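Progress report, Aim 2. The chain analyzed during this reporting quarter is listed below.
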Amino acid sequence: MNKSVWTKYGYVWVTLVLFLGSLIGHWVFAWFAFVNEQVAHGEAIEVSGYLVEVLRDTFENWQSEFLQLIWQVAGLAYLLYLGSPQSKEGDDRLEDKIDHILRTIDGNGEDTVRKIDEKYGRT
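Predicted structure tokens for the chain:
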């Protein structure tokens, strides 16, 4: 079955649309707030001043929320993928229990465990 790029990466597209929608919404409402503030202080409305302010606010928000979340989610997923000691504790324990069960209930349990270990490169 050959899926289209739209179907295969649907989660990415939805996330991208939500991200861009929230970013555009943030910048539009920031523009209105900037204009109101400039008018209240009797100052000129300049796009350069707006861009400095909105980019500062955007990056400040990303630093405190977005990057922290990225580290927590992506960093944890990456470390689990690499097989950090913390990610292997449960797997090793479970594997040892299964090995013990095989040795206990099967007359050829030791041979079965050895063949499985050889097949998957466990020594």
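The helical segments are 5-8, 10-40, 47-82, 85-105, 109-119. The mean pLDDT is 84. These observations will guide the mutagenesis work planned for the next reporting period.
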